[in-house]
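**Fold tokens**
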Amino acid sequence: MKPPSQRKGRTPRSEAESGALCNTNKLSVIQDGCSCGFCYKQVWKSACFQAVYGYPIEALYLLLVTNKQSNILEDLETLRLLSKLVPEYALSLDEDGICRTAFELIFAFDEVISLGHKENVTVAQVKQYCEMESHEEKLHKLVMQSKINETKDVMKRKASEIDKSKIDRSRGEKGGFGPLQSIGSGRNESGFNDISISSSGSGYGSGSGLGVTPDFESFSSKAKGRPPSSATAPPKGSGMQLGKSQRTNQFIESLKAEGEVIPEDIQPKAGLSKSAAPPLTDPVTLNVEEKLNVTLKRDGGVSNFDVQGTLSLQILNQEDGHIQVQIETGGNPGILFKTHPNMNKELFSNENILGLKDPNRPFPTGQSGDAGGVGLLKWRMQSQDESMVPLQINCWPSVSGNETYVNIEYDASSMFDLRNVVISVPLPALREAPVVKEIHGEWRYDARNSVLEWSILLIDNSNRSGSMEFVVPPADSNVFFPISVRFSATSTFSDLKVVNILPLKGGAPPKFAQRTQLLTENYQVV
């Protein structure tokens, strides 16, 4: 606001004229300051209120209207604080710049003046209060995120249902073997009768393990006249494809625009394994897989340590079905092995040979795209020994002033060489990515889920230990837990190895290959 003597279109009046005007309007004018016109404080007083303006900001002035009981010294202090806030928020100190940032200035002035009284705050405190998170905004973001997660879950379930129906349809059309996840009673003489074996191995006594399943699934023999060479993948059908409709494409594109990582092919291609395993090339393939379920305490110690392993068999040609598998284990006394009921337990106990009770029955042959194969053996190990943990994680958050320094270090056991290690640390809601001071490896900030991912491609004897340090705004230490860990390895706790393949009908033993991997199913620090 410009003073009355400097307003456009006004001519200066004499003191008498000004006094007469003031008396007519019952308004008195008091001027305090020098006569330069730039550093004075002008006070207008009437019967009910007084108006104070001063502290020129280029061509603009601040105006403060109070009642007559207000303390003029406090009013001047309020004007001085408001004059410091204007340059902090205004884009330019003119009428256009003030109008553009009107709401920001109103919010800032509201922090200074509350219910007609000045708050005891500074410029830094006002800026901090204005930048604080809104509870309603945070709640809205949480609701939107839950809706997005729910939609993604529905999308994944639909993809799984369509994939399952397509596999069943392909199995029925070809009359071949199913996914080799459960083997039921067959009706052919060459079938694998009264056997139900699963390669998932989620635990003893469960229906998804190597026990007998309630629903038996028959494996029919290959059609006569089909050449006994390696089975080919089922042909690509022209059935319904997920993600091909326009509405689904628009939904996926909207998720991509929001920063969500969406795989290009949601539905697995027909004939390919769901685990994206490489295609089989050897006549006989044996898969050794162990899954880790570990829960570590943040202050040290093991809350849960569970290892579940399976040995599965995949055979390409029918003529190689009459075999036995000779194995050897690492001799770990904490591991309990359990064979399928249709396996010869005495043969395994005495000679470490896996074979059917009826040697005249062959193992079923599977197609190259079947995942898992025929489960032969499973095992489990549980322990509270901290030395058995392949990867220890320590997290040390500490608050220093207006910042929280978080130091994370890992210590890997010499038993395994870990590959594709990803350590995911939850963070509080941040406006910007955290400042990473030091790191061994690579890092990525997932702003959508507010997670910092620390990636190490390979942990071997050259880097058994490493650390990362980053800085975030002040936060409670519980925010950074639980820490999730993912990795894989090419060796296992059981150290199970396939020694030889024994043909039961004579001839040279078929060529075989062994695939071994250790995976994390649930690995956390709480």
